[in-house]
Amino acid sequence: MDSRVAVIGIIVEDENSVDKLNSLLHGYGKYIVGRMGIPYRSRGINIISIVIDAPQDVISALSGKIGALKGVSAKAAYSAVKTGENDAG
Fold first, then answer.
1. What is the pLDDT of residues 47-88, one digit of tens each?
2. Which of 19, 58, 62, 73 could cross-link with 54 by S-S, CB 3.0 to 4.6 Å?
3. What architecture is domain 3-72?
């Protein structure tokens, strides 16, 4: 199966969803290349970027599950480059 590189941008507005979000990310940990989180305290939100290298359906599933959390928004931006599963990271 082809692997894609993508960035999932996440905005967390409800701190009560953080544990569920972290649990989801842990479950997909084998695909995650890196993570950067920025607390924007003056706005009361957290901004997280996830770099992921996985099949497109896995990326879509994770992004959808994150976006379904209360007070959490997620969008994925995909690289045009596809690689075979054995070529990835």
1. 999 999 999 999 999 999 999 999 999 999 999 877 775 454
2. 58
3. 2-Layer Sandwich (3.30)
